[in-house]
Amino acid sequence: MRKIVKLGSTIAISMVLAGGLTACGGMFTPDEPLTESELLQGQEGRILWEAGLQYVKLVGRDSGSLANEHPESLTSEQMRTVLRSLNVIESGLFKVEEVPLFSSSELVILSTAIANGLTQASPNDDVNFVSVGTHKGGLAKERKTTTGRVFISGGRLNIIFGLVHELYRDKDIATGQEIDRRVNPLLPGKRSFDSEPDSRVSLDKGQSFYLDPETGKERSDWVVIDIATVLQAAKERQTGDSGLVSPELLEDVARSKQDASNLRHDVGNMKEIIFEMSEEIETLKKELELLKK
Fold first, then answer.
1. Cβ proximity of 225 and 203 under 8 Å
2. String of b and e for 130-169 (b: at least 16 CB within 10 Å)?
3. For residue 22, is pLDDT > 70?
4. Which residue in 197, 225, 17 sits closest to 104, CA to CA?
């Protein structure tokens, strides 16, 4: 049985993590990832983690054709590797680039809470999340919201995004009024329709967009992840060993060997030249001695 979080710990955690939602315009606090043990406290029940408008919680399965394969045992480290592999395509002032979907603190929170949720989930449960992270912006750091619905189906991890790196604001730019989140909620995605987020996830090894069997089209908000493939790809990148040697690498090795052989030959020639010069220098010394006399 997991530990029940103490009241003081709950207040402390919530104050730290809610800071990203209460920062004033232009003022941002740095990410402060919590430890896994802190996050695992009190995670029995439907709400797995909550801070202000942010949360990770178990909800009833979204209606749709895919059946869930829960509970599923994934470690928080495995989940963190999977979430870390996700990037998003963003357009800057002069360029288009891929950036991490989640900040470091988001990774710690979501990986721990989602992994724990999947171990508790029944086949009729999904794990929903709303997360606000501090990310690099055009001129300064910005708060961005990402929301999603997570479940295991077909042996793969599915994430249906509602929002992807949506710029988070407390007030409406046009009116200056506080945004009422009861009217404008931060919603995860749904199986029933494509939320068409403004930013699009960039796919990597073991990742694909869900193909809607009814329309035959890819869903822009629904990413299907082969966990084993993503974990293996991450391991190969970390060790630099894919088990294969490319023709380019073999060519580089052969070229290096030839260069080394040429260098040894050049060094040998230099030794001979130096030996000959030594003899000439010695002869010159003797001639100078004779001239002095």
1. no
2. bbbbbbeeeeebbbbbbbbbbbbbeebbbbbbbbbbbebe
3. no
4. 17
For the chain, the residue count is 293
Inter-helix orientation angle 104-120/76-84, to 10°: 130
pLDDT at 257 (0 to 100): 53
DSSP strands (E only) in the chain: 47-51, 54-60, 87-91, 96-100, 125-135, 142-153, 156-167, 200-202, 207-211, 218-225
Burial class of residue 104, CB neighbours in 10 A (0-12, 13-18, 19+): middle
Residue 38 in tokens: 């802190």
For residue 12, the model assigns a pLDDT of 42
Report the alpha-carbon distance of residue 98 to residue 90 in Å, rounded: 6
Distance, CA of 219 to chain centre: 21
| Global pTM value | 0.69
pLDDT tens for residues 269-290?
555 566 566 666 777 777 677 7
Backbone phi, then psi, for 154, in 5-degree steps? 65, 25
Distance CA(120)–CA(217), nearest Å, equals 33
Instruction: Give the β-pairing of 96-100 and 47-51.
Output: unpaired
Of 7, 100, 102, 9, the closest CA to residue 56 belongs to 102
Q: At what angle do helices 227-239 and 76-84 cross, to 10 degrees?
A: 80
Q: What digits encode the pLDDT tens for the residues 49-102?
A: 999 999 999 999 988 777 899 999 999 999 999 999 999 988 766 778 899 999
In this structure, are strands 96-100 and 125-135 parallel, antiparallel, or unpaired? unpaired
Distances 279 to 63, 108, 272, 287, 292 between C-alpha atoms, Å:
94, 72, 11, 13, 20
